[in-house]
Amino acid sequence: MKNAEISKRRDAAISNGVGMQTQVYVERALGSEVWDIEGNRYIDFAAGIAVVNTGHCHPRIIEAVTKQAQAFTHTCHQVLPYENYIHLAERLNDLVPGDFAKKTVFVTTGAEAVENAIKVARAATGRPAVIAFGGAFHGRTFMGMSLTGKVAPYKKNFGAMMPDVYHVPFPIELHGTSVAETMGALHKLFKADLDPDRVAAIIIEPVQGEGGFYPAPAELMRDLRKLCDDHGILMIADEIQTGFARTGRMFAMENYDVVPDITTMAKGLAGGLPLAALTGRAEIMDAAQPGGLGGTYGGNPLGIAASHAVLDVIEDEDLCNRANALGSRLKQRLESIRARVPEMVDVRGPGFMVAAEFNMPDGKTPNPDMTNAIRAEGLRRGLVLLTCGVYGNVIRFLAPLTIPDDIFAEALDILEASIDAVKGAAK
Ligand code: PMP
Questions:
Q1: Pocket lining: 261 vs ligand 1, CB cutoff 6 Å
Q2: Which of 56, 221, 297, 404 has its CB 3.0 to 4.6 Å from that of 256, i.e. a possible disulfide?
Q3: Can you tell me the mean pLDDT for 175-194?
């Protein structure tokens, strides 16, 4: 069977609405490598979009999931509960930033974690409105999509968004938007459009993910925390993409000197098993009435078992420090390439949540064509890369944190050769 043949069947069988980054049909994956059905080998710098931070098929995660599958795969925790669910909540309540009593809810996807964080915030405050940022990504459900700050493809043709959702610009110095401007926009919003006493929450990604890997400045986090405290607004940190050692800390919010009231998690939480969670101040999390939160699959036993193993592996293999080491090697290499590729206008990101941004030779206009060409060239040479950004002009690097040094070095050579090939072809 060939990738192209399946791809044709895919076009006939699967909705157009599901996007495709590659036509590489996977046969197996291990650590940071993937093999397709034609026997081609790839180095995976996508990790299933920041999910397998602990690598594909980590033996400890496979062992935990296998053991759980042999015991039971599903009872629904609301019907017949199991202890490892409670224990995982205890672990997250300890790990999530914030020196106060916390409680957790398990759900299945990132979008669902966001939905539930908003439900909890509304129940706890008795207020309806929510504020998010331009360029944000919070999921594809109605509230997730409404909070998302990018029209195409996420909102286009999907009709009315949820009411009482407001966006302000995210501060990105590279694009000329300062923290003062963002805070000014919030103050203007409160004067012109929205009574702050009606705001339940402000939701923020500590590093914007899909939006382009832009870290929130420390000053912004501080100012937002103060604004929230002044007006009784809850602060929600969406750590779905930043979580679980990716930024060099277990959670990206540990890189700041303020803490959120609620944290949403998914992706790296369970190493590829569908598990998501929200953890927050106990009194806030208790505001919803029994039965108001949860779901059939929320906290599925296989995901819970996987997540315990993920947390153990992050600790035992010192993956936070590994993220910092890998990230600094990658950034050094990118900076050296940048010296001769002026289209690469920025290299950034905490830990191993690193990205490079590409503009036209004028230095200002986004260059999605070059960005996409590098991604395609990387894939042709055996390196799976992802793009992101509101303008599609950012390459994000999300290899598993367990990638061995030799494979990492090989990947950096492929990356450099791919950029050079695209740059050479453009001359
Ligand atoms: N929030 C953030 C920050 C994300 O990166 C994502 C996924 N890219 C989501 C929410 C939605 O998660 P899911 O795709 O699991 O619904």
A1: no
A2: 221
A3: 98
The pair of structure tokens assigned to 321 is 């420090």
Domains 3-54+318-425 and 61-316 share a fold: no
Residue with tokens 């979009």: 49
Q: How far apart are CA 53 and CA 346, in angstroms?
A: 24
Beta-strand pair 276-281/41-44: unpaired
261 is catalytic: no
Count CB atoms within 10 A of the CB of residue 311: 21
Cα separation, 67 vs 6, in Å, equals 33
Class of domain 61-316: alpha beta
Integer CA distances (angstroms), 386 to 168, 195, 210, 218, 375, in order: 26, 40, 10, 27, 7
- How far apart are the C-alpha atoms of 359 and 367, rounded to whole Å? 4
Q: Which atom of ligand 1 is nearest to the CA of 139?
A: 11
**Ligand 1 pocket member 209 (CB < 6 A):** yes
**What are phi and psi for residue 181, nearest 5 degrees?**
-65, -40
Fold for domain 3-54+318-425? Aspartate Aminotransferase, domain 1 (3.90.1150)
Catalytic status, residue 267? yes
Separation of alpha carbons 183 and 186, rounded Å: 5
Which residue ranges make up each domain of the chain?
3-54+318-425, 61-316
Catalytic annotation, pick one of 36, 44, 223, 238: 238
Specify the pLDDT at position 425: 79
Going from the Cα of 209 to the center of ligand 1, the distance in angstroms, rounded, reads: 9
Marked catalytic residue, from 102, 150, 267, 423: 267
Q: 49 C-alpha vs ligand 1 centroid, how far in Å? A: 9
Length of the chain: 427
Whether the per-residue pLDDT at 263 is higher than 70: the answer is: yes
Give residue 1's pLDDT band: very low, low, confident or very high (50, 70, 90): confident
Residue environment code for 7-33, b if the CB has 16+ CB neighbours within 10 A, otherwise e: eeeeeeeeeeeeeeebebbeeebebbb
Q: Among this protein's residues, is 190 annotated catalytic? A: no
- Supply the pTM of this predicted model: 0.98
